[in-house]
Amino acid sequence: MKFVPIVLLAVMAGASLGAAVPGAAGNGKNVAVVFASRYGSTEQTARWIAEGIGEGATVVAAASAGDLGGYDRVVLGSGIYGNRLHADMAALLERHGPAVKDRIAALFVVCGMPPDQAGGYLDMFAGACGAKPLLSRVFNGWMKKETLSPEDYRGLENYFRNAGYPFESYDHTDREKCVAFGREIRVALEGK
Fold this sequence. Notes:
This protein is of the alpha/beta class. Helices cover 35% and strands 22% of the residues. The protein has one domain (20-186): Flavodoxin domain (Rossmann fold, 3-Layer(aba) Sandwich), CATH 3.40.50.360. The protein is built from 5 helices and 9 strands, in the order ββαβββαβαββαβα. The strands form 2 sheets. Strands 1, 2, 3, 4, 5, 6 and 7 form a 7-stranded mixed beta sheet that branches. α1 crosses α5. It is globular. It starts with 19 loop residues before the first strand and ends with a helix.
């Protein structure tokens, strides 16, 4: 599998927000898995992570998240686009960052770079949160040409052409890795 060295922001702030995710034995914690996504892969990643956390995990879009005061712990996930956090995540942190920083259990980002080369995005995210999470992870996403806005389509088409790569849709998401990360979060929270 060949990774293209681009930064891709994921999903739209999507459907069925706030739905609890049934799963394995609960961890005794009420956990919000908050995502900011442009084209769907960050939302999907958040749902798989919540599945791994199990009972007590609720998936919430950053765009519609309130103060998150009703949650014991928070997992934050953002797509990366143009080397930045998704605007909805940045806005959430600006509004509620100080109130949640001590409850952040984990951070994750979704981007088009190979995970071993994208650790700087996690550092940037942790800095924006003002917190050191228990766990953090980089995941790959997808790019579906048919879902891109005209502006994103032109920008990515130019990028791929200039980089010498074919401009093709791809899906590098990995459910197993996301669910496993959710389980790691659950185990870390059980120890707290």
